[in-house]
């Protein structure tokens, strides 16, 4: 029996189903750069790095060294009780590298989910208002607060209600809702009317604490908010004294070809959540926000034993060093152009490739049927075949291929990934692909 199978059989019995997004019957044993390897020694190109929180690649030597050096000095002493040098340095650095020429403060957490919970708390504390407005298709996390403001999967909310009260979802400007030939600005105006509808019918704006948005939705399908829509929403929050926050957990830290996805819009948000790749996959998140908002709550309103843990903070300092030293934000933009060329060409060549959205080394590629409708089965066949050919890719919302390799992927590895994708596309076109024979193959 293969090592993969042995470990998986045990895991299937012990791990709760709800804790998994399941894809392939493999066990990841080790990784280096853009390559991950399973327990049977098979190598795969990782095209899922934003999800797996490894923007700068697996086991980067600088991060490994920083973790090891810090672990020799001090692994943990609750930062909420006593400061430690590295956590303090990281907080200062995050203030410096986030947009906004105003005074800021930082709240560390253990996950993107609890960072977004903290945003809700601070916004409510600051405004003395209760309502939170977020968007359909958003993923903000898996705690009760962050689930309550998410809108991406029925299985996340099924059976667990009631959710946090006074959380309202408005339609995200997903291009599936765009009328044929509708310009960016017309689309923005029309969707902004939908945004305002609750405010005109039952939701007093002066009772709304927070609007939170992913400037480019990640798990919702890699979808960028139109510029004008973003400006209209932002201005609306200014007009009504509402805190404007962005979730950069998925799309931040260079993923989109800019340091933060909100940088595409030239807006400095009141608050921002950061996580995932911040500490190259160690559990660390942060909220960076305006000082007056972040100081609205008293101790100990948002305390976690290991939030800002020194080893995770050292990993984050090294991760930010690597992003800068290896010029990875610019690299994301540059390699993103190669990805755009490849996928746009593929969209010309293969009828089943629909909308292609590429922002940096970061893409959502829709797979459609003859009528142009989402084709979830074809998408599943594709990702399974891509896996067999040696690359790890998953789908979003059923029919979107998610393309997010580590920003350190070499051009040779990228070409190899394109070769694998081309072969899978050819085989789908030829009708030779079948669905995987496993019950362990579900997505979001
Ligand atoms: N926000 C966004 C945009 C995310 O993509 C995620 C994770 N997919 C989260 C929040 C939650 O982060 P975590 O899983 O670390 O709690």
From TrEMBL:
Listed Gene3D superfamilies: Aspartate Aminotransferase, domain 1, Type I PLP-dependent aspartate aminotransferase-like (Major domain)
Listed cofactors: pyridoxal 5'-phosphate
The organism of origin for this protein: Leuconostoc kimchii (strain IMSNU 11154 / KCTC 2386 / IH25)
Family: Belongs to the class-III pyridoxal-phosphate-dependent aminotransferase family.
Signal peptide (UniProt feature, chain positions): none
MF terms in GO: 4-aminobutyrate:2-oxoglutarate transaminase activity; identical protein binding; pyridoxal phosphate binding
Keywords: Aminotransferase, Pyridoxal phosphate, Transferase
InterPro entries: Aminotrans_3, Aminotrans_3_PPA_site, Class-III_PLP-dep_AT, PyrdxlP-dep_Trfase, PyrdxlP-dep_Trfase_major, PyrdxlP-dep_Trfase_small
Enzyme Commission numbers on file: 2.6.1.19
SUPFAM superfamilies, per database record: PLP-dependent transferases
Top-level taxonomic group: Bacteria
Protein name (record): 4-aminobutyrate aminotransferase
